[in-house]
Amino acid sequence: MAEAHCGIIELGHACLETPQPGAGLNLCTRHLLAAYDRMSQDVGITDILPSPCLACASRLGVRYPSGWLCAICDWRVGELPDRDAMPVRVDVVYYVRYRDQIKIGTSGNPRGRLAQLSFDTLLAFERGDRSVEHKRHVQFASHRYPRSEWFRVHDALTDHIDRLAEAGDPWSRYAFWVSQDIALQN
To answer: What is the mean pLDDT of the chain?
Structure first.
C-alpha cells in the first residue's frame, strides 16, 4: 500500500508531506496551519481581550487581522462610545438570597443598588422595570413576608429563578443588555 501524501498541489507539484493524523483532511501540518490562518481572517479567533470592552466590560473577544471585536456586543476594542450618546439605563428585576429568604427588587443601577443591600448570593437578573417586579410580587404573593419585598424560599420561586439563571451569569446578562441598548442608540 502506498504511503499517503498531503493533497495540496503547489506550482504543479504535489506536496510530499504526510497528512496530519486525525485531522479529518488530507493535509500536512504546514497546510493545515495555512488553511487555519486563512480562515481565521474571515471568521476571527475567539480569545481573551487585551483589555475589557469599553461598552460592556466583557473580557471575551474575537481577533481579526484588522483588530479586536467584543464577542458579546461587537464593539470595536479601542473605540470609545460616543460622548454625545445618552447614558443607557437598563432596568432589571434582581433576585438575591439572604439565608432562607429571597428578595425580589428592581433597579436601573443594579451595581449601586446591590451595594446597599445585605445578601448572601445574587441569584439572577430578569430584564424589566417595576411592572415586571410587581408581576413577580403578585405571582409569588402567597410566600411573601408582609409589607416587604422578601419571600420564603419555595419551589415555584426557585424554579423561576433557575430558569432565569440558565441564561448565564447575571452580570454578563446585564452587560449584554447594556451593550444592546448602546448599539441601538448609536
So the answer is: 86
DSSP state of 142: G
pLDDT at 84 (0 to 100): 59
All three cell numbers of 73, joined, read 456586543
Helix (H, G, I), strand (E, B) or coil at 70: strand
Single-letter amino acid code for the residue at 22: G
Q: Which helix (H) or strand (E) holds 121?
A: strand 121-127
Report the alpha-carbon distance of residue 27 to residue 5 in Å, rounded. 8
Tell which residue, 168, 96, 93, has the closest CA to residue 135. 93
Could you give the count of Cα atoms lying within 13 Å of 106 in the half-sphere of its Cβ?
17
Query: What's the CA gap between 68 and 62, in Å, rounded?
Result: 6
In the numeric block, which cell numbers belong to residue 93? 428585576
Q: Is-contact 77 61, C-beta < 8 A?
A: yes
Residue 48, strand partner residues: 60
SS3 assignment, position 73:
coil
Please measure the distance between the N-terminal and C-terminal CA atoms of the chain and give it in whole angstroms.
63
pLDDT for 9 equals 86
Please give the Cα distance from 104 to 161 (Å, whole number).
Answer: 10
Asked if residues 120 and 98 have their Cβ atoms less than 8 Å apart, the reply is yes
